[in-house]
From TrEMBL:
<dbReference type="InterPro" id="IPR029044">
    <property type="entry name" value="Nucleotide-diphossugar_trans"/>
</dbReference>
<keyword id="KW-0808">Transferase</keyword>
<dbReference type="InterPro" id="IPR050065">
    <property type="entry name" value="GlmU-like"/>
</dbReference>
<protein>
    <submittedName>
        <fullName>Mannose-1-phosphate guanylyltransferase</fullName>
    </submittedName>
</protein>
<keyword id="KW-0548">Nucleotidyltransferase</keyword>
<dbReference type="Pfam" id="PF00483">
    <property type="entry name" value="NTP_transferase"/>
</dbReference>
<dbReference type="GO" id="GO:0016779">
    <property type="term" value="F:nucleotidyltransferase activity"/>
</dbReference>
<dbReference type="InterPro" id="IPR005835">
    <property type="entry name" value="NTP_transferase_dom"/>
</dbReference>
<dbReference type="InterPro" id="IPR054790">
    <property type="entry name" value="MurU"/>
</dbReference>
<feature type="domain" description="Nucleotidyl transferase">
    <location>
        <begin position="3"/>
        <end position="117"/>
    </location>
</feature>
């Protein structure tokens, strides 16, 4: 299975830090966010990674290179200065991925074991869901018996970790579009499975959360 790391976001909530540095290259615990992810994926046996980029993307290529020093092979899917959003970015990179494939947001930190992910899935997507963080109390999806739904009730938050089949993007033209509506529509049809992860996970979306993560990781050292 190949993995894609989404690294094209502008990081508006991280400004001014992201005015000069792509958000995935911001550091916590002495390493950039994206290096934490790459190392976790390499430990899990992933060898072929695709990374998309837009804003200051050349910095990502300069910092990570071909990935050999991490024990992986990295190819890039550049989107220019105008990012294609999550859905459009994945759609553009499909030719570089196999089926199914893993997608991970480049601005999260987690101790999730990527080797535990299913290598085949029954539906169009398999999502890792987590407890709702304080900044997102309403959650994204319901989870019952391993099936992800969009109905009311106890809801969990999408972690930014998912296994997808290319058929999720079937019939969609190239261009800029988000991923979330595709997932909600597929979930409403019963075509999305999932699991609840209760380990450590952080959406590193603001400078305060980045500082908190840095302090936590340095405390582990």
């Amino acid at each position: 299975m190949r993995a894609m790391i989404l690294a094209a976001g502008r990081g508006e909530r991280m400004r001014p830090l992201t005015d000069t540095t792509p958000k995935p290259l911001l550091e916590a615990g002495g390493k950039s966010l994206i290096v934490h992810l790459i190392e976790s994926l390499a430990r899990a046996g992933f060898r072929d990674l695709v990374i998309n980029h837009a804003h200051l993307g050349e910095q990502l290529e300069q910092a990570l290179g071909d990935g050999m020093r991490f024990g992986v092979r990295i190819t890039y899917s550049p989107e220019g200065e105008h990012a294609l959003e999550t859905g459009g970015g994945i759609r553009q990179a499909l030719s570089r991925l196999d089926d199914p494939f893993l997608v991970v947001n480049g601005d999260i930190w987690t101790d999730f074991r990527f080797e535990s992910l299913p290598r085949t899935i029954a539906g169009l997507a398999h999502l890792i869901l987590v407890d709702n963080p304080a900044h997102h109390p309403i959650g994204d999806f319901a989870l019952r018996g391993g099936i992800v739904g969009v109905d009311a009730g106890t809801r969990l938050t999408y972690s930014g970790i998912g296994v997808y089949r290319s058929a999720l993007f079937s019939g969609l033209a190239a261009g800029r579009f988000p991923l979330a509506p595709l997932l909600r529509a597929a979930a409403a049809r019963g075509e999305v499975t999932g699991e609840h992860y209760t380990g450590r996970w952080t959406d590193v979306g603001t400078p305060d959360r980045l500082r908190a993560l840095d302090q936590m990781l340095r405390g582990f050292a």
